[in-house]
Amino acid sequence: MAQSDADRWNQRYREQAPDWFRQPRAILTENSHLLPERGLALDMAMGVGQNAAYLSERGLDVIGLDVAFEAVLRARQRCPALMAAVVDLEHCRLPENHFDLLLNLYYLQRDWFPNYARLLKPGGILVFETLTESMQAERPDLDTDRLLAPGELRVAFSDWELLFYREGWTQSDHGHQKAVASLIARRPKEL
């Protein structure tokens, strides 16, 4: 990610109230029965760590990565057990067959799609949610490269065991409507 993106996110986190994003994302809490109760989780682009803290409280060891130093600082304050690092996900390498759970919430880097199977242990769980192109009806300024096309997420993981999928408009954490695609899938034993 360009340094300008890191600067923009750092500024945004500095300006937000400390309780911003206090609650974990609904996809996690509403589908907690689909998540492992122990093991190692990776939270990519974790933000201020509300999801990582939730997973840690459930008994998982969690590694959180984010491009913004301010986000990592807040996440570590919230969850001291969190293993967190400032990382540019466009230029990092992660260990293979290492994670039991992988979160990718509101971060879209399509060239990572094939890597998720490599990162997860066989049978590991992927939780993925991000905005879709339908958001342009409300926010025409959004970059289409950062929005999923209709059905794209389902197609990208069509050879995985689909545990949960939805696509459409939903209530955001801030009370607005947002268009998202959400997926929870299990990595096949053999790929």
Overall description:
This protein is 25% helix and 29% strand. The two termini are 29 Å apart. It is an alpha/beta fold and 191 residues long. Helix 5 (113-119) links the parallel strand 4 and strand 5. A 7-stranded mixed beta sheet has the order 3-2-1-4-5-7-6.
The pLDDT mean sits at: 89
What is the element string, with H for helices and E for strands?
HHEHEHEEHEHEE
Q: From the alpha carbons, calculate the radius of gyration and give it in angstroms.
A: 16 Å
Strand content: 25-35%
Which bin fits the share of residues in helices?
Answer: 10-25%
Computed structural class: alpha/beta
Distance between the termini: 29 Å
Ranges where pLDDT stays below 50 over 5 or more residues in a row are none
Question: DSSP helix count?
Answer: 6
Strand order of the largest sheet: 3-2-1-4-5-7-6
Largest sheet: 7 strands, mixed
Shape: globular
DSSP strand count = 7
Write the layout of secondary structure elements.
Elements: H1 3-15, H2 26-29, E1 40-44, H3 50-57, E2 61-66, H4 69-78, E3 83-86, E4 99-105, H5 113-119, E5 120-131, H6 152-156, E6 161-171, E7 177-186
Keywords:
191 residues; 6 helices; alpha/beta; 7-stranded mixed β-sheet; 7 strands; globular
